[in-house]
Amino acid sequence: MLSANDALGKKALAEKTIPGFRKFSPGLFFAGAIVILAVLPSDGVGLSSCPSQKLFGLSCPACGLTRSISSALHFDLARSVDYHPLGVVVLLFFGTLATIPERRFLKLQNKFTNDESFRIKSTGLFIGTFLVVWIIRMVYHIHLI
Fold it and tell me: Which of 36, 53, 124, 134 has CB 3.0 to 4.6 Å from 61, enough for a Cys bridge?
């Protein structure tokens, strides 16, 4: 007999079906993102895609993050931290999302969607961490681009 959680998990899996696709696989998505970042050159491709940089000449809180993750995947941790101090943390987060079972991912997604307190705390922690690091980098003129 299925427990309520198992039934909820199967229902959530069934609802995630996209016409023409079997189902969305978060693990495959995040693994693909990691592979793409591993293929990119660790020093960037010479183009800035940051709208804040282009419009205002100011780096945004995430500037350097792609190069940081790419450098970490090339095992150049010093350069990774220089590009963005949170790059390794974000890479570990993506790596975790790529390896957790799909049912657990859907439970976490369900908690984020339905638990307002959890959503506010986790979003605040994410945004707050990036803003604090960004302010420190701006004040001390630490490598931003």
Answer: 134
User: For residue 65, what are the domain limits?
Assistant: 26-41+49-139
Q: What is the per-residue pLDDT across 33-42, written as a single tens digit (0 to 9) for each?
A: 778 877 877 7
Is there a contact between 144 and 64 (Cβ–Cβ < 8 Å)?
A: yes
In sequence order, which residues have a C-beta less than 8 Å from that of residue 59 and are 6 or more positions away?
50, 52, 53, 134, 137, 138, 144, 145
Q: 13 lies in a domain?
A: no
Asked if residue 111 belongs to a domain, the reply is yes
Sign of the Cα torsion 20, 23, 28, 30 reads positive
Q: Is 132 left (phi over 0), alpha (psi -120 to 50) or beta?
A: alpha
Neighbours of 87 (CB within 10 A): 26
Tens-place pLDDT, residues 68-91: 888 888 889 999 999 899 999 998
| Sign of torsion over alpha carbons 91, 27, 100, 116 | positive
Whether residue 11 is contained in a domain is answered as no
